[in-house]
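Entries read chain and fold; for instance:
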Amino acid sequence: MIDLELIVPDGWVQIPAGTDHDGERARIIDGLVRRHLPAGTDETGPWPRALRREITAAVDEASRHQARSVLLPIGDFDGVRLPGSLVIAVVEDVEEGTAPEQLFASVLAGAGPDGTYLEIGGSQAIRVSSVTTAGPAERRTPARQVRYHIAHPRVPGAYGLVTFTAISDGDVEAEPVQAAVLMFDAIIGTLRWEEETAPAAPVVQEAPEAPVEILAEKPTEVILATAPPAPARRSLLRHPVTLGVVLALAIMSGTGGLVARHAASAAEPEEGNRASTADVRILVGAASVCPALTAPRLAGQIMVASNFGGQPVAAMRDGGATGVAALTPAQWQENIPWDGAQITDRKASVTALAHHMCRLFGQARMVDLDDDPWRVALAAHRLGMEPVLAAGGVPGEADDYVRTVERYANWYALQPGFTGHAASPVPTAAPTPGDTVVPVPEAYVTAIAAAGKTCPDMPPARIAAQIMATSGFDPDKLGEAGEQGIAQFPPTVWARNVKAAPGRSPWDPDVAIPALGRTMCRMIKNNGGYGAALAAFTRGDREASVTGLTVRVSEAQTTYAKDLRLQPVRQPAPKPSASASPSASPSPSPTAARPQPTAPARTNQPAVKAAGSSGSAYGPYFVLNFGTGMCVDVPGYAAGPVDGPVHQFPCAKTGEDNQEWTFEPRAADAEGYQLYWIRNADDRYCIDPPGTGSVDPGTSLNETNCFDADNQHFRLEPRLTSGGFAYYWLRNTASGLCLDVPGSADAGPATRLALSPCQSNDDHEWALVQKSEW
């Protein structure tokens, strides 16, 4: 039997799942609710009863997914109330063709910039971050989810799945949510594999109860403990616990309820040498190696090591240290960042230091020391971990080094160009209009075209125009207020809107350009228009005057709208003729509308009814809507992210896109209808309603990994024929609802698809068209 071991902080509550623990589960939930009741609240009142029901329902949902236990962080972590849940699974019996290497590659391809390779405990792993949005149909709170897939280092085919879901009060980029994810990334560094001959009961050391304070009258507010957390204790968490269950802590973190505090460093800032634009870029990129690092922290170390010179200062040359980061030969050999790297190369040296410090930070998290893990890591870098452990913290001989690095780091955090939690300096005035609109460099055309597909308010021409007006397409530009790279992201805007991950940097155009599209779309929605969003992006204030910049962008957009390279070959699908249009002709007759027991006349169509439950996939097809003339689409032009939205967009009849779908037979229902997965040909994800069962009308659709024991089966019900194409209702069998474009055949591009009650004279009819048929 294979198990995962993690170290979690005190203050986590374990609620057993499964029918064998009904009594114990009820006792734990009742005690949890009682401890957190505001003074004077009736224990039998309506909201305590509702709270018990909600937590019980969440655990019951986990039980239906074969979970053994649910863990919720009820105590504090470094002074932060953690709004989330932790779930774990171990897969030992892997089906043929789904070995971890292939699975990881598939998941990573679908994750795009939100996924990355890394190593955990000596094993190959990937990290994927995603956001689940809220809506009335989904009845869930916005959350950020981080999933780790970790291959077993010794058992072929086995791998672990560890998921942390951080609940928000509406803003998934809020500081408490980011702090919760940072905590989880630190916990995952403690992962160890264990192989046992017999299962042992899960053991979680409960922290002693601490006095609590209810922060507001609303019963959904976060509960903040007054006592500091005790040192971490070892908890053995065992499988099977499934992924993706958003758990009951959401109940305790309602609107306005996310509160966090961070201990401020006692070290006063000490002015360091100014870092060049090239060095700032290196530091920001290297700091993305792990969440524990920041560019100011690395800058503080480089300042102490070499004053940003080429070689170490005299006090840092012991052990044969060399290079800008003052690494010893052993440290360099253990952390060489790429083949052929030389320690004299500034980027290689700083990146190696970043890898080294991430490893030490992970070790510092694991040891039972009453000191800040970053300080422990700094001391271990200077002396080694053994002297630090022997001293029970930062030894006296390393104290001066640690404090000096901290002081420099605090100063660099205040300087333009360094990302982090410190506020950036007030930006200077926006650029003034110029006379020349330079052509979009060929190297950036693909990224700009893809970014311009994020939302209708930021088409490719506007993306290109904003980049031209702010950076002139210069990927190395460092603005006067610290704006970075080709998209000129202010540091605080980048930190607030782009999730940190290894290799993700505003200096990388392939990362920054898509991030600009997503960020501006979000800001336009939040600020009520492009002008206000541009002011919020560049000046940090939606009310700021950016008239000159707005005019410059508008001028450039007019020019770039004529650039055919930014306009994929997308022609709206031909509307049905007047005699066949929904508005001009009566609805299909009962005879025409009745589902047919055989496949349509076109031989390339999937079977409507079939005796078998499996077979070869049909397609791929464009899925064309009769009413809107648009096709089922995934945002962007390549593989979409797991759990990403599915919407409609003008059909890319001749261009390259991600609009083709296969229909894969999976089962037959009681009426003889063939049931299908609708699977994207690029990312191999299936159209999926939230959850695993029936959903309410109006529920928005995503795409995710394909499962039979889910609600992903659709059947085809022929409705009408127009222009030589047969049109179907695509009915979801779990809910009985049909694939729908919200509205009445008048929805525009990028409208997210949903499930609605099936009805004629709407936009529920879809044709399956192969590319050769356009």
User: Anything to note?
Assistant: The chain is about 30% helix and 20% strand. The longest strand covers residues 123-132.
